[in-house]
Specification:
This protein has helices at residues 21-30, 55-70, 81-89, 115-122, 153-160, 169-179, and strands at residues 2-8, 34-39, 44-49, 76-80, 104-109, 130-134, 137-141, 164-168. The protein is of the alpha+beta class. The protein starts with a strand and ends with a helix.
Length: 181
């Protein structure tokens, strides 16, 4: 049995694209997933599936089921339990004593950026905020509120040509804890 985390973009924000977590859980049950756990209203869903499947297959199935059930499109990004563990272990933003820095976020990308996209974006600077891209994840260090940063989902989607959604470090750590139960 493999364990996965689906991270939905843009639901229950400002009263738009509302989905109750109990209703979302029913959608996942209909898709044949088990041990389903939802975490906060922003669309974090942990689930098990009895066989190994490519993330993109889950993303498409869940997106289609949400479209059919709620009548709107929601980008869905999947990470496996192992991928989430690696995200935490590979955090490049640590203090000198090895602790996670405050103001830390991860933007999950649906697609892996190309070398040309990485080269183009590598010269972009918005101090004091900073980012490091590792694989299909962007680690963000924001000195203030994420909502005031220029390093938004839209920024990365435009420059990396990929759907993206962001979670704060506390949420990522909690998801890692939940996926391990």
């Amino acid at each position: 049995m493999d364990r996965y985390i689906s991270i939905l973009r843009g639901i229950n924000v400002g009263g738009n694209r509302k989905i109750l977590m109990a209703d979302l859980k029913k959608v996942y049950e209909k898709l044949g997933f088990s041990n389903i756990i939802t975490f906060i209203q922003s669309g974090n869903v942990i689930f098990d599936f009895p066989e190994k499947v490519e993330n993109v297959v889950f993303e498409q199935k869940i997106q289609q089921a949400i479209k059919e059930t709620f009548d709107f499109d929601v980008p869905v990004i999947i990470r496996s339990k192992t991928e989430l563990k690696n995200i935490i272990e590979n955090n490049p933003f640590k203090t000198n004593d090895g602790e996670d820095m405050p103001g830390l976020f991860v933007t999950f990308l649906k697609d892996w950026p190309t070398s040309a996209q990485l080269e183009k974006i590598s010269h972009t600077k918005y101090p004091p905020d900073d980012f490091i891209i590792l694989g299909n994840n962007v680690y963000l260090s924001c000195s203030g509120n994420y909502s005031k940063s220029k390093l938004t989902n839209q920024f990365f989607e435009k420059n990396l040509k990929s759907a993206a959604t962001t979670r704060n470090w506390n949420t990522i750590c909690k998801l890692s804890e939940l996926v391990s139960t």
